Amino acid sequence: MRISKSPWLLHYDGSSCNGCDIEVLASTTPRFDVERFGIVNTGNPKHADIFLCTGGINSQNEDVVRQIYDQMPDPKVVLACGICACDGGIFKDCYNILGGTDTVIPVDVYVPGCAVRPEALIDGVIKALKILDEKAEKMKRGEYKSLTSAEYAEKLKGMKTASDKEKEDENA
Amino acid sequence: MTEYSMISVIIYLIFAPFIVSILSGVDRIVTARMQGRCGPRLLQPWFDLIKLFSKESTAVNGIQKILVMAHCFFAIFSGAIFFAGGDILLVLFALTMAEVFLILGAYSVNAAYSEIGAQRELLQMMAYEPMTLLTAAGFYLSAGSFRVTDIISGNVPLILKMPGFFIGFCFVLVVKLRKSPFDLATSHHANQEIIKGLTGDLSGPVYGFSLLAELYEEALMLGMAGLFFLTSDRMSIIAVFIAIAVIMFVMSLIDNIFPRVKWETLLKTEWIVTFFAGGGNLIILSLIRK
Amino acid sequence: MSVLSFLILFPFFIAFVLFFLKKDSLVRSFIVFIGAAGELSLSVYFAIDSYLYHDIEMGTFYLSETHDLDMLIAALELCLMLVVFFLAVKYKKYPVMILSALGTIPALYMDLTGKSTTMASHIKVDHLTVIMVLVVGVVGSLICMYAVGYIRDYHRHHKEFRDRSGYFLSLLFAFLGAMMGLISSDNLTWMFFFWEVTSVCSFLLIGYSRTPEAVHNSFRALWMNLLGGCAFMAAIIFCIYVMEITNISQLLVYASLPTVTVFPVAMLAFAALTKSAQMPFSGWLLGAMVAPTPSSALLHSATMVKAGVYLLLRLSPMMCGTYAGTMVAVIGGFTFFAASLLAITVSDGKKVLAYSTVSNLGLITAAAGCGMEEAVWAGIMLLIFHSVTKSMMFMSVGAYENSTGSRDVEDMHGMIVRYPRLAFIMTIGIFGMSVVPMGMCVAKWAALRAFIDSGSVYLTLFLCFGSASTIFYWIKWLGKIFSVSRGSERHKDNVPAVEWIAMYPLAILAMVLCLVYPLISALAVIPYIQNAFSGSVSRLVTAAFESGSAGGEGIIAAISTEDFIIMGVMLICICLLPVAMKMVNSVQERQVLSYMSGFNSGNDRSFYDSHGEEKDQWLSNWYMNGLFGEKRLLPFCLVLSSAFVISMMTVCAIGGLFI
């Protein structure tokens, strides 16, 4: 059985304007009904397979996001939902915003939009499920272990994230 | 143990989780339809369970896992006693023992949500236990024995003698099947109370064990509900299936139309129902017996 | 006879010696050790001896001609009264003098005139006596041993109290002797004497620290017990002057004539209710918590309170369907339920134990009042299991208090890591008190069955509701012990070896009893019941057994062999848990933090607040004070139960005396 048959989802609201959050919840309503795919909105990282993050990362919540991510058991995927979660969006230049979700944890799928549309979101989740299955396959063979947030931070030191690059472009 | 009880125990041990997860799959679909949604696949609860066992095992401390596993073991054990036709009081006591291990597992992580969940679970036990014990007493009075094999060997369905107990027992079922309005400790829903309460700090296979135990427990509770209808007549098994279907439907209906209550309301409701429905029926049964 | 007299007199002798050894010394510890070990082995020897060499089936009788001993007892009774008078004057509590005089003076009169004795023997040994001797001898002696280590630590922690530990230890032994006397006496006047000795001893033990609270509580215990003593005396006077009998076994002959015995049985039952701290009188036992732990262990588990239920169990053949029986059963059932609700609302470990004791005694009382064979079986089993388990609980709480300075349940957080050995003892204790393969629950099971059989709906309801709330307070305590805080380390417990010598055997005994109780039942409990009920098989019982509910043998089919085997399997599974833990934990898994909404500061014990500062989390148990608080529930219960007892006693008194 593939793990993607039962993806449980954790929704975390970073510093979003709540537009995306409303759309996330809208996707559980009769019109879109993500439960069709067996998706359950768990609200507890220890039960979740998909980490769905909306809004940018700020200095208040970066440790929270790291901790929640670390508490999720493998295999797991991260979904950055909405343009703010992808790279900071219109809040990017605010004094308190560090950038998108990938400034603190590794992101597997980016779903842009302001706010993200439920159709796009569901599409993103389906993409994430494929990645989840691949990870589960690799994990079964003992080839895969996801990065912890600390390891990811180590890795980031040597390279630039998408949002960093954009910032540099703008500065240039 | 007779051959018959051997067979029923084996069926219970092997198929109970599968059958109950189909039942709860139906339940989820029915719930979804009531809300105008399409709902998940029929086997969704089964997929969920399998998935949990394939996930990475993480733990907060060294004793959490073993306590949850002990919970699972004793839950299965008490069900096995029941389906072997054993003493129904022993079944209830063993079930209590199983619950105790789950509660200890939740306490052991020393985390706020788990601990609140654990205490709410204790409260739920306190709320429903008088009724389950009384139900056993009712079976004893009306069938003359605590043994399941004797209880089901009567000629008339026991519900005729003990309607009050049945009403009380349905209230217990709402709690045991973790349905709103009485799902204080943990809920099977997405819209959870206190981050899934006492299962909040379980993950992966450990959580899987607690879900597995829940499936077995559910089978046991539905089996107990079946005792009200089962007689020595083979055909009464059909009545049992119809009854369970009706019970499950009413449970999802209740689940969908009632909001979660506060703990005082839970305790008072359960105890008042126990006292009047259970106690009243008990008085009548004792009088008849004299 | 020589063994038995030695059994009774030996503790008094030790008490006498200890009274003069005021300083803590090796010699004193040695004497206590010899005393306790001697008493323990004596009681075991006595049990074996009575089985092998005496006709225990019929009961062995001793001492029919006792003029000199009666004089001695009269003199000692006078001494007791004078002690009470002296202390009452000293602390200006005059009313107790009246109660004491009311009880003692008729006793003196009857002893001196020789009315108190016919040619019947004064001492009788039957199965119940042997059971009680074993309970008191084994548990009581272990408590005395424990006391040596405890009282030393106690005075190390409480410098403000004067060290009178010699006096304390001496009282403990006197208590043991009195208890042995009480359970082997058949003559009512003798029984009354030992009854009064235990009352006064408990009074002195409770007042040990001489703080105003202790003095107040000790006098409360005294007046309640003396009131019971007065009722006892009234029963004796009635027996001697109206029925012209002096012995309990003679009284039991009248079991088939309930109208004659209404008055004495009701009075004796009333006395037993006071001694067993049943509902309107529960106050003294809760107040007794101010005393040092060994005395509360002794008062609550093995001796004092068991004297009351012992008397009730003796009288239970006369209870079935009578007014006295109804009073006892209702009060017992009510106390079981109410005390278990009250136990939820307190956090002081010893207070929880006190309420739980009151509650469990209530169940035994209800079983005795029910007056059916099955119920009495359950009652005796409860008595045995409760003594062993509860004394162990008291000891471990006391040891924890001496190690950490607190006995609050909230402070036992994470005990399993910090003090694993004490946690082990407590876990066995709590399991033993609450869940199934262990003893208490088994007996409860039999009691439930008996209550249903007797057709008393109220007892069944009390038992169902009461056992549900019992689980609540025990398991939340156990949960506290099992909470593991990350990074907490094992502490050194300052528990002296001698306390372990007392606690480990009890823990092992608690486990072993679960496996051997059918043996005890077959050897002692069932023969006793068969003898006791032979004259008066109650109508209810025959009705219940005719319907075939209990199967072949009649009395004890409550727990069938098959169920017993299943429970044995469960017990073994539980014992295997630690082994399984080792095996499961050999697979290393990733350790994660507990979930605190992502604000866990890294040690599971504190979190970051909205200012980014670290704050400690404090997890507390649930006490439901708004719903069942002591202030709310207790006065209501006391008023209700007092009204009930008073009206029932009035009915019995009028009915017994004038009709």
Report the average pLDDT across residues of chain B: 88
State Rg of chain C.
25 Å
Mean residue pLDDT of chain C: 84
Whole-Å distance between the termini of chain C?
42 Å
Lay out the secondary structure:
The complex is a heterotrimer of chains A (172), B (290) and C (659).
Chain A: E1 8-13, H1 19-26, E2 40-41, E3 50-54, E4 57-58, H2 62-71, E5 77-81, H3 83-87, E6 97-99, E7 109-111, H4 118-140, H5 149-158, H6 162-171
Parallel strand pairs in A: 1-2, 1-3, 3-5, 5-7
Antiparallel strand pairs in A: 4-6
Chain B: H1 3-34, H2 44-54, E1 58-59, H3 64-83, H4 88-108, H5 112-143, H6 148-151, H7 163-176, H8 204-227, H9 236-257, H10 263-289
Helix pairs in contact in B: 1-3, 1-8, 1-9, 2-8, 3-4, 3-8, 4-5, 5-7, 5-10, 7-8, 7-10, 8-9
Chain C: H1 2-20, H2 26-53, E1 60-62, H3 67-90, H4 95-113, E2 123-125, H5 127-157, H6 165-184, H7 188-206, H8 212-243, H9 248-253, H10 258-275, H11 283-287, H12 293-302, H13 304-315, H14 323-344, H15 349-370, H16 373-404, H17 415-418, H18 420-434, H19 439-454, H20 457-482, H21 497-533, H22 539-546, H23 561-585, E3 590-591, E4 606-608, E5 614-616, H24 625-628, H25 630-658
Antiparallel strand pairs in C: 1-2, 4-5
Helix pairs in contact in C: 1-2, 1-6, 2-5, 3-4, 3-7, 4-8, 5-6, 5-12, 5-16, 5-21, 6-7, 7-8, 8-10, 10-13, 10-14, 10-25, 12-16, 13-15, 14-15, 14-20, 14-25, 15-16, 15-20, 16-18, 16-19, 16-21, 18-20, 18-21, 19-20
